[in-house]
Please model this.
Amino acid sequence: MARIIFVHSIQPSNRCKAGDSERDHMTRIMTRAAEMVREHGHEVLVGPFGDYNANGKANFDDNVDFINDQHRSKPVDAVVSGHSNANGGSLVAWYPGNAFGKKLALAIKARLGRITPDRVGERDNLLVSEIADTKPTVVLTESFRHDTTKGARWIHENVESIARAHADGVLDVFGRISEPLKATTPAPPAAPPAATVRLLKLTSPAMRGEDVKQLQREALRVFPTYARPALGKWGADGIFGKGTDSFVREFQRRSSLGVDGKVGPATRAAMAKFGMKGF
Model:
């Protein structure tokens, strides 16, 4: 079983000529690709996205921190960073001299080449800032163009196919099980009644309980870079105080959710995409 991270484009101002922004398109594509690979028994995570800094430059620190934190806790076999292009077209790239990165990139290229309207290029000079400091094997993909109406419409209408091409390229390298897990595993237990799932939020007196403690544990496990400063010396104490509220608001901001500090259905669903669970 391989451990793989899918990272999606984070530039929120890259507006497409049709459909959604590059970030929105690639969030859906890479999240779906991760689900497809996970069905074949691999451990798969989806990396967070960032924003622009005060100088108007794309801030990729979240990607780097997330990847490096995960790699330190348990080695990551590969990272696939998905984008759509502007002033260019489809391509794949890998770090110079990384033979395994080249193998993985070319496997994805072969799959993308079956569906994209253009020829898929390739580069062995991947030195982009978002992942320059990471240790695992990293490949980058660009799926067609978002800066033309035709290209953006094609991306918008082919989210599932683009996701499948990425997933199949990864599975061509890391292998498949004979039947997807979702077809062979028993049905999951029924979800608890909605009334048993609390809306976690800052109150007075503060909310306490195992669900709050599990939220804090998962925050520290999945997002240690900004969970540790927020939770501080208290850590996972089971008390929804100002530190936990600060973490939730920061997560919502980075996830383009409404920022209200409340862990309701939308925030829980967004957290679940990053592997946070049990609360």
Notes: The longest strand covers residues 137-145. Strands lie at 3-8, 43-46, 51-52, 58-59, 78-85, 91-94, 121-123, 137-145. The CA atoms of residues 99 and 137 lie 10 Å apart. The mean pLDDT is 82.
